[in-house]
Design brief:
619 residues, mainly beta, Jelly Rolls, 38% strand
């Protein structure tokens, strides 16, 4: 009897930790009734960045840019639906997989692609890791073409014996779940960069599929005992296999220990309790490694929708949740992060990815924005350094990854003096927020020389841009100076802005493709003189927030005096360089089915425009 009472007491401590705080409604964060609580609010859903402060130093990197007609520089297939990426780190490499279809969501045929990177910042061309699956005669899918689609909530598993198992799921289109699911497949990634044979590891219990009518053998047929051992360990790991529940929906063999919840991500609190986060704000707790779960409940303070929520403990000993902080199913922006000391109370919502480029390719159910975020699951590797890595799709056609420096922060207290000379060419740029596509890059270059480097922005993307942002100490009086070199004046556009904490842009300067500098004076853009190509220009901005005006100097001469802010602000704290116009489309009202064709020339790069920035000083 005493042992029973002690067990009940221990369970109570787990589900009602001392750090839980009782609110005015007597709800206790950290308990099954409210597994976590987010204290941040105030998102502006009408702008892509939500008017959030950026998490300092985040690097947004486009891993894959869809291309329908020039497939040799994309995926070699010309498919334009790319979604649901997964991430792992193993054998000193990042592994990223995602599913793809020719045009639309839940369309056949489907494949799962994989790409690798030694540093997470530059990636190989993707290749199929799970190719098109042809159904056996008599098992023909809804579209009658005889091929399957792919759908998965889990991509990788690093087994206790060190093997990396890559995983995916085949099902019939357009509804690959339950009785229309086929089964989950696995194969091993080898250290030499090749992959082992494909096997089924589990068939959907409600479907007619089994080893007798499927193309790939059951994993027990493998002659590799280490591979079988790794698969057995995966099947026994409740915290990993709970991610498979979405494809089966209702399993009748007792395999799943949780009822409800979609797209689980799991981390452990410091007291050992596992916390699972699901779509649509749901969360649940397990004190026993997933053997039992509290009933998933909607967390009122997590405002999101059908896009995934990612949760993890970070390498600095804290916790992070990354998700689309808006309740819109088809308009998924911004991608935000909140952090916590205990995995229960989260606060300080900051921006991870706040860019929404145009949807270039028509397709069914292609939601706008950065979405379906995933990081590296517990046990699936730890990259070197002190960064958090998360991957996601944008508009369900391009695959991205973000490097988030730790600890996550938004404030700078020291003056800025950035010369770039000590940085590696193409390497990380400390304290700068970078937005880099395949065709529009922001990176360190050996220009004008190997000992005198600069920040280069290059752009040949017809529908996107490169962007570099430097956060500085919040101030009401600031002097900003830098050197600027334009390789051309006949094409390209560089927009320079000074912003406040909410992304309002009181100062706007444009180096336009007609060779003229244009500057805002209130709501108007006025001429500020000419600039030359292939020569350095010294720029200085002196801003006075109380008077709502600024002076602009070009090569030590005043070219605009006391120009009025374009919009009032209480302070300023960001300097932005962008190789394209500020965008407001799509809006929350934009219909994802509002156009019926691809955007013109989406697959062709435009004429390149290049700008160099150096000696950035902010006082």
């Amino acid at each position: 009897m005493k042992a029973f009472i002690l067990s009940i007491f221990i369970i109570c401590l787990i589900f009602f930790p001392a750090s839980a705080i009782i609110d005015q409604n007597n709800s206790k964060p950290g308990t099954p009734d409210e597994p976590v609580r987010v204290l941040s609010d105030g998102i502006d859903m009408d702008v892509h960045d939500g008017r959030l402060r950026p998490a300092i130093g985040v690097e947004n990197i486009q891993v894959f840019r869809a291309n329908r007609t020039r497939s040799n520089i994309a995926d070699k297939y010309g498919w334009t639906y790319s979604h649901a990426p997964m991430l792992a780190y193993w054998n000193n490499k990042f592994y990223l997989q995602y599913l793809t279809n020719p045009v639309s969501e839940h369309q056949e045929p489907g494949m799962t692609m994989i790409t690798t990177s030694s540093d997470g910042r530059y990636w190989d061309i993707p290749e199929p890791v799970f190719p098109i699956y042809f159904l056996r005669p008599g098992y023909i899918s809804s579209y009658k073409t005889g091929t399957a689609m792919m759908h998965q909530r889990m991509g990788f598993y690093v087994a206790p014996n060190g093997r990396l198992i890559v995983s995916a799921f085949y099902g019939e289109a357009p509804s690959p779940w339950g009785e229309y699911g086929i089964g989950r497949v696995v194969r091993e990634a080898y250290k030499d960069g090749t992959y082992g044979p494909i096997y089924f590891i589990r068939y959907n219990t409600l479907s007619p599929y089994n080893e007798s009518n499927t193309t790939y053998p059951f994993y027990k047929r493998s002659v590799d005992k280490g591979f079988i051992e790794a698969c057995d360990a995966l099947l026994a790991d409740r915290l990993k296999t709970m991610q498979w529940r979405d494809e089966e929906r209702i399993a009748d063999d007792g395999f799943f220990t949780i009822s409800g919840g979609s797209s689980a991500s799991v981390y452990h609190r410091k007291d050992g309790v596992a916390v699972a986060h699901f779509k649509n704000s749901y969360a649940a707790l397990s004190p026993d490694k997933g053997e039992t779960w509290s009933t998933p409940v909607q967390v009122p303070s997590i405002v999101t929708s059908g896009a995934k929520t990612w949760g993890q403990q970070t390498s600095d000993g804290r916790y992070a949740l990354v998700y689309n902080s808006a309740p819109y199913g088809s308009h998924r922006w911004p991608l935000a992060v909140v952090t916590s000391d205990d995995g229960i109370l989260f606060d300080n919502m900051l921006l991870v990815h706040g860019e929404v480029p145009p949807l270039r390719f028509f397709g069914r159910a292609k939601d706008f924005g950065p979405q379906y975020v995933r990081g590296i699951s517990e046990g699936n590797g730890t990259p070197p350094g002190s960064d958090m890595w998360v991957t996601y799709s944008v508009n369900k056609e391009d695959i991205w990854i973000s490097r988030v420096p730790l600890p996550v922060s938004y404030r700078i207290e020291e003056p800025v003096e950035d010369l770039f000379d000590e940085l590696d060419v193409g390497g990380k740029i400390p304290d700068w927020n970078i937005y880099r596509t395949q065709w529009a890059k922001a990176e360190i270059a050996a220009f004008p020389g190997a000992q005198n480097k600069s920040l280069r922005l290059s752009d040949r993307d017809p529908y996107d841009y490169a962007k570099a942002v430097r956060v500085f100490q919040e101030s009401t009086s600031v002097e900003i100076s830098f050197k600027l070199y334009a390789k051309q004046i006949q094409n390209g556009r560089l927009e320079i802005e000074v912003l406040d904490h909410g992304g309002y842009r009181p100062i706007r300067i444009v180096f336009d493709e007609d060779g003229y500098i244009k500057v805002n004076d209130g709501s108007k853009m006025i001429p500020g003189g000419i600039y030359n190509s292939n020569s350095w220009h010294q720029i200085k901005i002196v801003a006075n927030v109380p008077d709502e005006n600024f002076d602009l100097f070009l090569n030590e001469k005043v070219i605009v005096k006391q120009a009025t802010f374009s919009e009032p602000v209480a302070s300023v704290e960001r300097l932005s360089f962008r190789t394209g116009e500020y965008r407001t489309e799509p809006t929350r009202e934009t219909d994802r089915y509002g156009f019926l064709g691809d955007l013109p020339n989406s697959d062709e790069p435009s004429s390149v425009a290049i700008y160099y920035i150096d000696e950035v000083s902010i006082k």
